């Protein structure tokens, strides 16, 4: 059996508690802002150091790359945490507009290619130029980056971003997929729209919390009565993971 | 005939493109950021793509100065520029001054945690938002795609710039029918074009159709505006409230809701709505002014004082700042019993606008005349009013109808009935169908003890207008269409908002084209007359008939 997830923002206060009432989520959120600032400085310093060292030995180049990669991962995790906080507290009002999907995918690929030069993983995108979708650009960028970051950890040499229009009896929209050639998602994280995301085991391997964030974001995207949703299966390259994001 | 539609659409692409083929050489680029390091970094990024013509400035004031010297092709402007204007204000004023031709690209650069805050509340959308930090290749990709999009829309944009709204709508329709990738954006442009053409019935139908496909806040707002222009205020109110439900920080919807509420006489609600909008976007000057005026008329003097103070502060280096902000502040202070403060406000206004142009001098004289009168300084009030009248004499179109009525009021209270009467006469002439305006005029005459004279002024103006219209129509009927056109156009110049004159002038122009053949100049004149008729007139049957005729002429010219 999977344990139900315990992801609640508001921390109930004990009656008669001595401490005045700032709930934990709020404390965490304001701390995250600080942490992100520090991390920003850290990332800048890494960049400066890399430039100063110029042509460094292959070994330190790899170490620098790891340093940069991990800091960036930390940064995106903090962003995600902050976003979850805002979504749960309903502090975020999404700006849903029409965007070119190819542009979003291409930008994501460019971003990651620049970040991970030197690693043996090849990232590509595939999408009709004319495909457009309705979504909050910042949030969906966050979702795709999150999944791509994750896919990098598991992929052997390939990560592929694809998108296409889908039609469904309930309503049509776009489907964005992040596909890799790794070992695939563990059984505990496979799900589709028939299964409630909060029943996933968040301790099982890959970041379940990331998936929770993705599903929160997808759910914010609605057209009339149709809602966005996410799904995971192992139909990727040679049985690798495939993450699917449906936006109406 | 239409290059936009001939553009071949790209087929599916995989992987990143060869960036070597693309260059920024020869593009005029403006960088606006308050940090020197950021400016340098951006410059290096752009130079690496062949940019040769880059200007960097550190604040919004310098940015506008640079744009006034040379219109840029690309602007990269940070949202947060420290002291002074922010990026949004730079964009607004650049558009207002026409520094940004349609082909130019304006990118607003924001920090990642401010993007959502900025995006909801803007009136003028930039071409793109770019979230910091971004890499060189992402910037390149964005610019390349924006350039492609600009080319894609250039035919439509040109039609709109030339005010060929019907043609713009047709281009949109054709592109949508062909399955253009930007179908919703085309629908948005079409809706705006219909509104600019004052075809509010068609705009209403259009926005309703869009909303059937998808609940989009801009379409909901468009529908609200179309209803407002048709003076269907109760319906407009409901629609705009729904728009705010769709997007809670939708400031433009608050602005229109406030206008609707004011039109419905719900002055307290209108003020409350503006207050909410100001909370969301405190730097917008026009909104602060609107709030100040609403609060002043509701007797909420502290709110008015605060709003006008903000307007003055934000307007210091902005084209939207005006002496009337000082006037509003002074009036709020007089109402609160601090006459001394109000006097100081006037002194400050004189210092700020000491070498302003005629328009600002006129505004200042109007404020001075009114406020000094309220302060009991009759001499100063008289001198300022004389100055205002002298300035108006040189330029009679300079006064809005509100300003003209206020100035007339001051004249009457100073005992200058002649100047007051002439001002009211002018307003009556331009608005002789507007009952609320006429009753305000009657009231003003009555208060000045001139009720009888007022009635005869109004009656005379009416008679003169009816005669003028009849003459114009009679000339046309006698086949002297050219004479009819010139008579009615001259009248329309003096009374640009008069419904009957505008309709008759448009009709004569259309008749002339039917007889002597159509051309763009005459058509443009006819359309201009029709565009003057917003409000209730847009559902007027004769108006719709003339509009359809004008559209048919436009089509025939297009195909010629």
Task: Report on this structure.
The complex is a heterodimer of chains A (248) and B (560). Chain A has 248 residues and is α+β, with helices and mostly antiparallel strands. Helix content of chain A is 43%, strand content 19%. Chain A has five helices and nine strands. Chain A has helices at 24-53, 58-88, 101-115, 137-154, 208-220; strands spanning 96-100, 122-127, 132-136, 158-166, 173-180, 222-223, 226-227, 229-233, 242-247. Chain A has a five-stranded mixed sheet with strand order 2-4-5-9-8. Chain A has a two-stranded antiparallel ribbon with strand order 1-3. A two-stranded antiparallel sheet of chain A has the order 6-7. In chain A, helix 1 (24-53) runs antiparallel to helix 2, helix 2 (58-88) packs across helix 5 (208-220) and helix 4 packs antiparallel against helix 5 (208-220). The longest helix of chain A has 31 residues, at 58-88. Residues 1-17 of chain A have low confidence and may be disordered. Chain B has 560 residues and is mostly helical. Chain B is built from 28 helices and six strands. In chain B, strands 3-2-4-5-6 form a five-stranded parallel sheet, with helices on both faces. In chain B, helix 19 (358-374) runs antiparallel to helix 20. Chain B is globular. Chains A and B meet through helix 3 and strand 2 of A and strand 1, helix 5 and helix 6 of B. Strand 2 of chain A pairs antiparallel with strand 1 of chain B, so a sheet runs across the interface.
